[in-house]
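thought: fold this chain, then report.
action: predict
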Amino acid sequence: MNTILSRLKNGQFTLIAEVGVNYYDIAKEMGIGNMEAAKLMVLEAKNAGIHAVKFQTYKAETLAARESPFYWDITEEPTRSQYELFKKFDAFGEAEYRELYQYCEEIGIEFLSTPFDIQSADYLCDMMNVYKISSSDLSNLPFITYIAQKGKPIILSIGASELEEIERAVETIRRYNSRELILMHCVLEYPTPLDHANLNKIVSLRQQFPDVYVGYSDHTKPTEQMEIIQTAYTLGATVIEKHFTLNKTLKGNDHYHAMDPSDAKRILQAIEHLDAIRGSYELRCLDSEQTARKNARRSLVALTDIPQGAAITREMLTFKRPNSGISPSDIERVIGQKAAQTIAADTVLQWDMLTEN
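observation:
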């Protein structure tokens, strides 16, 4: 599946479900295996209309030191060590991700997984059309270089970053890779309060980096109107990534601010509505305006009776609705011509009523 790139190039909204490692908690809740839960989440995402699913591929030993402190809401996820948290969710390896990739291909949804080390970046390569690089690796220029040299399009999250860091990351990628690049605005605050979403940064990113695409990775809690995602889209974020779960009440790091299938459907419906009301960029009269155009615009109309053979003067003319005759914009062409017939006052002028000298 090459859904993301094809939709991106056509200017179409793209929704990525960040499954991450949420399937572990779903498996535990439902009493099923991790792979069964992961596939169930993929299927639910597909049925909701989501365009791509993304996992996270890591091993705790290569990702975090044992004393790495937490930075999340511990009322939702009580684990106080990054290492301990990641250790709970790192059972899958190449064989499992390949099985998930093949399942995604079978049901028709694009597969992605964020690699967090060299080994996973290597074995995921032939499973993905696009690489995803986490905000946490924005300053990890050696790793960015390694992925850029794979020669594939890249989605780069830029949460918790300064402009200079973004510029260095983009420059590093461009040194080795000229493929499509998507910068994903996000706020590394879990959950992100609505008034911290800082969505105008999307506009600034588009201005600062005009040669790349801009998207948004959302960590706010879903609302009924999905106004955060709607606003991000109207500001120019055509790719939206949001954590995905089947149960938002579950404890865990990525459930309480995630979307579920019903949220995803509302997002897609809201974007479809936005697209409908935004319309086309063409500067033309709409088909639906043709009747009003014909009746509300004016034509040249005889102000007085005009005898046959009389030369038309400006004083003989006025402008009235409807637009069923000669346009007032052609008045200079009409003046000086002769009446081919007697024209009664208040008659809408037609070209066949006139004859040139």
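thought: worth noting. DSSP finds 14 helices and twelve strands in the chain.
final: tokens above.
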